[in-house]
Amino acid sequence: MHAPSAALRGRATPSTKPPQVSARAAAATSRPLAVAPRAAASAKAPSAPSSPWPCSKFLDVGVSTPPLGLGLAALGRPGYINLGHGADITSAKSVDDMRARAFEVLDAAYASGVRYFDAAASYGEAEEFLGRWLASRGVSPADVVIGSKWGYTYTADWRVELSAGEPHEVKEHSAENLRAQFATSRDLLAPHLRCYQIHSATSDSGVLRNDDVLNELRAMKRDGGMKIGLTVTGAEQGDVIREAMTVKMNGGGDGEDSELLFDVVQATWNVMEQSAGDALTDARRAGMHVIVKEALANGRLTTRNDALAAQKTLAALQVLAREFGNEGPGEFDSFVYKPDAAAIAIAMHQGFDAMVLSGASTTEQMRSNAGAITLLRRFRDGGARAEERIAEVLAVGRADPEAYWSQRSKLAWN
Predict the structure, then answer these.
(1) Spelled out in words, what is the top-level CATH class assigned to the domain 68-409?
(2) Which tens digit of pLDDT belongs to each residue from 200-216?
(3) How confident is the model at residue 255 (pLDDT cuts 50, 70, 90)?
(4) Alpha helices in 121-192 (DSSP H)
């Protein structure tokens, strides 16, 4: 078994680069790991079709981005809680194999138009994989937006099945951990890194009331130009989002210098878990950007979910995908629009104008998810009819937040 690198544990120390990686790679990664055979350093990022996709200047950093991003939670380590994740990577569980798979999915995402990529210190080797891919493909910092997160340390040591009570990752929202993990993230992802987020801020963690942490983040934003964000989770997401909206750059209230500290919030919102919607709308109106994670509910809004309770929702999504997917030519000849594309497009269509993350772990999933971009445009063109159909799906799919998060907590790492 490959011994995990230092960054796998949320820490890294610089080391010599392999000769086949360019000098640009040295600015983005810092460990002597050979580039995977299926992802040679000489490869170029595949071109995206020149379709008139809905685009925006996400995070106001000057990069034109469609509202679909790629999160690397399922690509940087062999285990994750998405339904069927283990089946996706049955033959690719070593670090080298996982890196090669990550490169393939990153290539597919880029070819589909994706320009926002989201990693974390605790996603195994995700930051290393992403940094190496950016360098090996020659992707300019002017062409993509890269975000990462701090606050969790990966502790599973490249294992999937752990002893009872042994965690896959450990949370620590201290200023010391922020400094240590940011140093690693910067080493692996600079000069592409634009956004740094608190990973899973909650009321219980107290991180939004920790002056040492907040002052470190203020300095990153003020002195380094970093966009600062937070991710939220659980049934109380809305409360944490609203608390984050009270945190200012000047540390005070609504005086002359009342700029918000947080530029972006990342939350779970999907057809099943809609409870954070009002808070996300308020955050967007206040000037914060929005990232939606888990738009497919960790696979529960895909055809992999065979639970009887989900079938009515999946059927409604499929009907919506077929109705709007068959309206005129799209970017993909003979493309079959599936429930995943409809669910992601619905999240994109909400009033909080989100960057919605795909959590794909295969190229097939990535391409299927990318169908959401076409569906979004057709929703916008569909007027009242589209709004009515979407409202019907949301009514069918809506779950009680407490029940939703309880079920999520029972999803097995695989």
Answers:
(1) alpha beta
(2) 999 999 999 999 999 99
(3) low
(4) 126-136, 175-189
